[in-house]
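Deliverable D4.2, example record:
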Amino acid sequence: MLEIRSLNKYYNSEKGKVHALKDINLTIGHGEIIGLFGENGAGKTSLLKSILGFHSYKGEILLDGKIIDRSNIGKLSFATCEHSFFPNLSPKEHKEFYQMHFGTFRLKRFEALMNFFELPMNKPLKAYSTGQKNQFEVIMALCQGAEYILMDEPFAGNDVFNREDFYKVLLGILEPEETIFLSTHLIEEVEHFISRAVLLKRGQLRSDVTTLELEDEGKSLMDYVKEMYHYRADRVSKALKEMGGEL
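Output generated by the structure prediction step:
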């Protein structure tokens, strides 16, 4: 179980301290597929990177009751659109590197996903297209053997067909103990893939709801998100009217 207790994150800026995450309390169990949603700057990436120990923070983050350190960090993996691989190495070399450092590396899954997405094994990753790089990033996160797989906009640069394939493949390969924590703006695409939605707004936990609860209320995930963020449907028409009035 991943437990986040009273998490606060501050950044220094020219205007002083920015409170990026405010008293976040969240519990994530095994076998969940969770969508992390929020506007730009809501704190999604800050939350994921705090869990991974990339950021300093105030509060407590526990993995199976223990502080996350070198002894258990291997239970977490990360896929990011910023990319975390070595660009001069090939997938084959990455596979060998991961096998050396992670005894839990899923070789059969790695080979199957590389074949499924037709990614060249011996080509340096810097020569991959943006979409291929993102696919490989996700593949490595899924094959590390981690129990908690964190993803930050991993499908940026991939066409809709490849994204749809990824959702289907993920549902087909995940083991009961594996958890996905996915930050994305593609709300409608992942609605039927996730089992739970966590919403952040201005660094605060705005909502934590299961898709089953939404289904019982007869609400779509998109409608719920709009409701939580007080989306104004007339915003565009008003802006166009105002701009038209100025011309």
